[in-house]
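User: Predict the structure for this protein chain, please.
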Amino acid sequence: MATYVLVHGAWQGASTWAFVEEGLRARGHKVHTPTMSGAGIRQYELRPEITLETHVKDVLGVLEFEDLRNVILVGHSYGGMITTSVAEHAAERLATLVYVDAFVPKDGQSAFEFSPHG
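Assistant: Here is the predicted structure, written as structure tokens:
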């Protein structure tokens, strides 16, 4: 069976993936749904110092702490920014990247550039 790490979008949390997680687990897959610093149920942590880099470290921490390998890394919305950067830092731990209605940045591109006001 496969191992998934599902990365939510901005202002969301792990609960975004509840239905997907349930279906994957029912099929025997391993699923990790971290909530990013300052988001979802961790919104009490929100502070100006939290950046994309913080969220990348959140996901890298899951990969390292759980010693995950051959991972299917899935990003939704802003989560695409996170997964793209995680892939640059931990490609050896990943099997594939999946973008679900997500930002797919080019090198050096910011999330703000995906905004209609960017």
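The chain has a mean pLDDT of 93.
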